[in-house]
Amino acid sequence: MKTLMNAAALSMAIAYMAAAQSPTGNSLLISPGDELHISVLDMPELEQTPRVTDKGDVPVQGVGDVRVVNLSPSEAATVIRDSYVKAHFLNHPQVSVVVDQYATQEVTLIGELRTPGAYPIATPRPILDVIALGGGLSDSADRDILIERRGDQSHPIHYNVNNDGEQAIKEQVLVNPGDTVVVAKAGIVYVLGDVNRPGGYTMSNNESKMSLLEALSIAGGPAKTAKLGRARLIRKVDHIETQISLGDIQKGKRPDFPMLPGDILYVPFSYAKNLVITSSAGIVGAAGAAAIYTAH
Fold first, then answer.
1. Residue pair 266/283 in contact by the 8 Å Cβ criterion
2. CB-based burial of residue 56 (10 Å sphere; 0-12 exposed, 13-18 middle, 19+ buried)?
3. Following DSSP, what letter does each residue of 136-200 receive, concatenated?
4. CATH level 2 (architecture), domain 35-101
5. pTM for this structure?
6. pLDDT at 246 over 90
7. CATH 3.10.560.10 fits 104-185, yes or no
8. What confidence score (pLDDT) does residue 277 get?
9. Which of 8, 55, 66, 113 could bond to 134 as cystine, CB 3.0-4.6 Å?
10. Helix (H, G, I), strand (E, B) or coil at 59
């Protein structure tokens, strides 16, 4: 992860410039309290640094208040230019708007990070840099991260932390001051009984999914003494228990199928051992006490 952070930092300036020029909305939107730097080409006397009012306006020399809240800097420059023309103050002004200081200069990190909290950032930063501010993802973190843009709760952005470092850097998005980053807890499946490494396993691959055979493989596979024909799947989400033949699934006689978060696969011993957990309640209780591992 440290290598990812260093590489991400090297690309931050390029990524920021590309986002600032993008017409698709990656630029920060102007909010009340932001300090703007407004200038007009070849007219230094019109240069000014007003602060956006609580109503969302800025006072512009020669035209009065202009509404700029929730606009990108380039959109604000267009609105101010049009205001100059409409007021017959200038005919063909070339207006530039830059945000000198954001009123909100923190990003909030919530959920499965090692040190969640609010962290100061002055400019948009790549998501991997922001994750590093929070100490990195915890072992139980879901790979699908949600980014809620400041002032736009209806269109959250999803970013998947790919296990491939190069792909993770290539696909990363920018996090803006005022944004909230939410890292959910990954689903956990349990493989118990006569397997080589019983325990709980986080669904932390790139898709946050895991099939029954994948779960069995991650748990080290069944022991030689396992009774494969009488395995049991307990699905806690709908309180259903199903007896399955792992041997048939391994041989392709029956299809493999996806596990759901909270599922318990119990592989029984071929002899009388640990009878205390052969009941459904005993198996569920054992899952609650199982060691949790990160599955990559």
1. yes
2. middle
3. SB-TTEEEEEEEEETTEEEEEEEEE--SSHHHHHHH--EE-TT-EEEEEEPPEEEEEESBSS-EE
4. 2-Layer Sandwich (3.30)
5. 0.60
6. yes
7. yes
8. 56
9. 113
10. strand
